[in-house]
Amino acid sequence: MITNSMKATEESIIALLLKEVNVEVPSPETDLLETGVLDSLKLAELLSHLESRFGTRISVEDLEVDNFRSISRMAAFLQRRATARSASPGE
Amino acid sequence: MLNLRVLLIGEEAAGVQTLRMLAGGPHTLVGVMASPAKAGGLSPSVWTVARALGQTTWPAELVKDAGFAARVKSNAVDLILNVHSLYLIDGEILRAPTIGSFNLHPAPLPRYAGLNSVSWAIYHGETVYGVTIHEMVPGIDAGPIAYQTLFPIEPSDNGFNVSAKCIHEGFELCRRLLADASCSPHAIPRMPQDLTQRSYFGRAVPAGGLLSWSAPARSVVNFVRACDFYPFTSAWGNPWTSMAGRKLAVCSASLTGESCLAPPGTVRRSGNDLQVATADEWVVLRRISIDGRFLDPAYVIKSGDRFGVVPAAA
What we know:
A: mainly alpha, globular, B: 2 domains, 6-stranded antiparallel β-sheet, 15 strands, elongated
């Protein structure tokens, strides 16, 4: 089920991709990696912008390809991070 | 405008971007030569993307085989474009296309020919860098220059973002090559390189990767920046140092501009920063790694500690 929060996150990522990485994505489910829409450089640039926009640090250990394969997967990853942070406010 | 028949030999992000441009453009992409996909990695390879786009693929290693020239000719290839593939291409293959074979090299040739050019340039403290497309001859990175763009290296730049600039600027040079070639093969500039100005670098890592705190702060930080391709790893790894018999890699550091008299390698805390003394100034230690794990320096190092020191190179 897609919540309003998830949808808002997806829309933020879509906007970031267009504005900062110059990549236009047809839908949140589009596989961005298979056809090289996001190559390794653009992915790294996107990660930097996601860190700034969502106030989270994406460590090398987080860089599982599948977390960033589509807009919806990125949004789910970021939502999980936000939930984990609010569950452990001291960290 | 001629419809060109192009053979792409490519790797890495630059290869993927060039592949997508060619696959979506007006010219015929005859095929793609790349290293067959390996498992893992941050994103799909040129090989994987080419297959997903329905392109004909050949292993890049075939460029060493003179017999492949016959396939280039039978496919009526006009242009070979080599983007970030490090294989040495057999001379017969270089001569096979009707227009020519061109290489995108991430450096301002004739300077910084060879390998790991971006790292060497930052290590040497260069403030101006560039990217070049040249016609390929049997000598490495030695052929006539077709196009070149120069750009500044800022003090805050590192290996990652200088490489990113090279990819971005190089992509535009590829567009220019294709545009000129499609007008007329004679429209492609070919300026011989002044090889008296050539610098060439191989695989060796400066000082075996050992960071010398006895060197000036700027040299220390340049070495760290040259190896900083985060979130990727550089071909040089990260420069390393030692403390109490333990090896640490220095992944990110920055200048303070504050002169110091403490013995090189001495650690002090300044506000939230951990700083290390060099020959002349304090340097901020921003990120280290131990046994491949990135760590905040404050977790493992404290004020008063001292890194191992080796004499600076003459």
